[in-house]
Amino acid sequence: MEAALSSFQSANTQVLGVSVDSVYSHAAWAASLGGVSFPLLADFHPKGALASACGLYLDGAGIGDRATVIIDTDGVVQYVESVGPGGQRDIADLVATCKAVASNGPEFAAPASLPTGSELFVRDNCGASRSALWACENLHVKGQIAIKNVSQDAAAAAELEKISGGKQAPCLVVGGEAMLESAEIVGYLVEKCGRPVG
Amino acid sequence: MIAQGDKAPDFALKDQFGREVKSSDFNGKHNVMLLFYPLDWTPT
Questions:
Q1: Burial of A127 by CB count in 10 Å (0-12 exposed, 13-18 middle, 19+ buried)?
Q2: Which residue in A26, A61, A76 is closest to B16 by CB distance?
Q3: Are B32 and A71 in contact (CB < 8 Å)?
Q4: Most buried of A14, A88, A99, B11 (most Cβ within 10 A)?
Q5: Rounded average pLDDT over A145-162
Q6: Chain A interface includes B20 (CB < 8 A)
Q7: Phi and psi torsions of A112, nearest 5°
Q8: Is the ipTM of this complex over 0.90?
Q9: How do residues B1-44 score in pLDDT, each as one tens digit?
Q10: Which domains, from first to last, does chain A contain?
């Protein structure tokens, strides 16, 4: 789906994945797939509320169906298909359907890039460091940022202390400024390099 | 199951970056394709 994203954007369509998993699970799983930049929505609490509202929540199993819903710019459903939990979607068919539904809307903005010289300091066995790394993977910015592991690299640890005045990681350094909170780091990365939604 | 011609439900949910994504972000601008899938860590 990530590979077909530009075809859907050309058809004026915002792609949104939805499952009952948490934000944390989505970030980890998406990164393991090589990076998913379109939003994966956490239909997590109350569990399956959006799937239920669409009649696509499988009560017995406690999961959502594998199904596709295409909504037009007036908020009206134009296409619904369930392929069943084990089924497979036909991406080419969906692109064609979205083109047929497409009306004119503003163009999707392209993701921007990080300032040169950006650095991310991380440490081993640290959930916050992992979250920052997943965001880099999902936003496809690993080539634009030097990732330095302070648990494995003494020079990196020394550099971190020099820049931030402490040992705390994760630490994102952009334009000489150090950012230390993982939520702030992920927020900055998605704001700067994510595909804008809406 | 929801059907063609129905009004889509409104939503406001967080994505994998912790960013809130709302149905109203797209009204009047873009079509939306919701890809429901059973669970993370299963074949896509």
A1: exposed
A2: A26
A3: yes
A4: A14
A5: 98
A6: no
A7: -90, -175
A8: yes
A9: 999 999 999 999 999 999 999 999 999 999 999 999 999 998 66
A10: 2-101 (3.40.30.10), 119-193 (3.40.30.10)
